[in-house]
Write a structure and sequence with these properties.
single chain, Dipeptide-binding Protein, domain 3, 4-stranded mixed beta sheet, globular, SBP_5_dom, Peptide/Ni-bd
């Protein structure tokens, strides 16, 4: 998932005040299957049936929690249809409005089935999967959140004309291709089908999913927003649904999305899981992270999951034990627009990478809070390697200048791109100073835009220089750090990068007999990508958030999402 505009990200956890290890934690799940172990952190799976979103009473008053309301910092979401939401600000809001099929252990990242809306996810061959849903779950308008609702959501996500950003999550389901319009078809051509043949509603609470190929990690993916259900009301008016989503979660919309201002939600009293503690939440939308931080300091905002990096020292003094710092799955990189011939020579890309002193920037600007990235996969995920990138991600300014000279040098200006208002200005300036000093590129300028416009230009391949982006895992697997970003058809491949060998290795890793067996193949694919270097790995981040005295039990998980239902308003 493309991370939010801010440098850091926040994640929510079921166990309040539990320390999140070095990983971006999805929610807990557990599942049974023949001879198969699947782990969020690629560790052994634990069949834990209880967890957040379960049916047990946690002491809250019947039909409600402890009351009160609080406010949360977010940026303007790009979308609020789950199948089209692949950035963290939209996902934060949807986390309040929906309950996922499975959850992930906050401490270990292990998949837990039973903590979400699925009671079991089983397969005998890792290709045909049977999902048993818990009965009694409903949407906020009273519609049952049954197998048909999940089929509706997944088919909408896969339907080509919708052009939803999370469509790639359904590519491995049989019949996906029939929902796409051939690239050479005349304008106005519709797909051959509107429903995937691999999605079968067996009965009201049972869904059978047939994949094109065996995919051992399929259960690991099911906590992601793309796999949320959709009510019949979505089909009638998708645009209206986007403005006022109808979900299955502990909170429901209170009015419509007030763009660039706020989104309000209130507790859903007929929620089938454990009731939220607070009565309501206001997601306050900011275009500048420092404005949000000032509101937090002034008591006008309750929770912020991503603090301005340059103010972390101040935040430690200001907030004390109300500061939340823990490892996350956040990965920051600087990408190259390979569709621009100036970056076609890999020596140019390697030179830029070797000319950047990542540790010096971290020490000077981020108070040493982050870790220089020597790979593409976060250390919180099993299968990550400390220095897979080797010399190409090591600060070697003399070798960098020599490489650039061998490539013919750099002529003209260099434009560095980043999204505005989110604390990236200082470190991008530091990068520019190092490139001037170490590579002799004298003319360097900056282009910064609001996040939504920035993403749109990236998608349209209209960015003209190295660009800042980040990634927060959708689920804890090396595959999630590689396929969406570096495969030829990856939804977040903003470089124009394509390597047939990488695509083949990713496909083989996906079809491996077990998750563990796929790791070696994913690592081989990562080695090829690092040799091509379509982007410069910069650093792996931490959750760095804080909250006011008005709330307690605030937990942010490695997915950089707040466990909103657990937050208690101090009365």
């Amino acid at each position: 998932m493309v991370e939010s505009p801010a440098f850091g990200a926040a994640v929510r956890q079921c166990v309040v005040n539990a320390v999140v290890p070095a990983a971006k934690v999805p929610e807990e799940r557990s599942f049974a299957m023949r001879s198969l172990r699947v782990v969020a952190g690629i560790a052994a799976v634990s069949l834990v049936l209880a967890g957040c979103g379960g049916d047990d009473d946690d002491g809250a008053a019947p039909g409600g929690g402890t009351g009160g309301e609080f406010s949360v910092y977010v940026c303007e979401p790009e979308h609020l249809v789950p199948q089209n939401t692949n950035e963290t600000c939209g996902a934060e809001v949807l986390g309040a409005l929906f309950t996922s099929l499975v959850d992930y252990d906050v401490g270990t990242n292990e998949v837990r089935i039973g903590a979400g809306t699925a009671s079991s996810v089983e397969s005998d061959d890792q290709r045909v999967w049977t999902i048993k849903l818990k009965e009694g779950w409903t949407f906020h308008n009273g519609e049952p959140a049954n197998a048909a609702a999940y089929a509706r959501g997944w088919n909408a996500g896969a339907y080509g004309p919708n052009a939803y950003g999370n469509a790639y999550f359904f590519e491995n389901i049989a019949g996906y291709d029939d929902l796409q319009v051939p690239t050479d078809a005349p304008a106005g051509t519709k797909p051959a089908a509107t429903e995937m043949s691999g999605i079968e509603v067996v009965d009201e609470w049972t869904l059978r999913v047939t994949l094109k190929d065996a995919f051992s990690q399929f259960p690991v993916t099911l906590g992601y927003t793309a796999f949320y259900p959709l009510p019949e009301a979505y089909t009638g008016d998708p645009d209206a649904f986007e403005e006022r989503p109808i979900g299955t979660g502990p909170f429901q919309m209170d009015g419509s999305w007030q763009h660039n201002q706020q989104i309000r939600v209130q507790r859903y009293d007929n929620y089938a899981g454990t009731a939220a503690k607070a009565d309501a939440i206001t997601f306050r939308i900011y275009s500048n992270v420092n404005t949000g931080y000032n509101d937090l300091l002034g008591g006008n905002l309750d929770i912020m999951d991503s603090l301005p990096p340059e103010r972390l020292g101040d935040a430690r003094a200001q907030f004390g034990d109300r500061l939340i710092e823990r490892a996350s799955s956040n990965f920051t990189y600087v990408g190259f627009p390979l569709y621009d011939e100036r970056f076609a020579d890999v020596r140019v890309r390697r030179a830029i990478s070797m000319a950047i002193d990542r540790q010096a920037i971290i020490d000077a600007i981020f108070n040493g809070a982050y870790t220089p990235a020597g790979s593409l996969v976060s250390p919180v995920v099993a299968g990550s390697r400390d220095n897979a990138c080797g010399q190409w991600c090591t600060y070697r300014p003399e070798e960098a200048r020599q490489l650039l000279t061998e490539a013919g040098g750099w002529r003209g200006s260099l434009v560095l791109w980043f999204n505005s208002g989110s604390g990236h200005e200082k470190w991008m300036e530091a990068v520019s100073n190092q490139l001037r000093s170490n590579l002799g590129i004298s003319s360097i300028s900056f282009k910064s835009l609001e996040f939504a416009e920035y993403l749109e230009l990236l998608d349209q391949e209209k960015v003209t220089g190295p660009f800042r982006l980040g990634w927060v895992m959708d689920y804890p697997s090396p595959q999630n750090y590689l396929q969406p970003i570096y495969s030829t058809t990856g939804s977040s491949n903003n470089f124009g990068y394509s390597n047939e060998q990488v695509d083949q290795l990713l496909a083989r890793g996906n079809a491996a007999e077990t998750v563990e067996a796929g790791i070696e193949l994913y690592q081989q694919a990562e080695d090829l990508v690092l040799a091509d270097l379509p982007n410069v790995p910069m650093w792996f981040g931490k959750v760095q958030g804080a909250h006011s005295n008005g709330v307690s039990n605030v937990a942010i998980d490695a997915f950089t999402r707040i466990r909103l239902a657990e937050v208690t308003v101090n009365q």
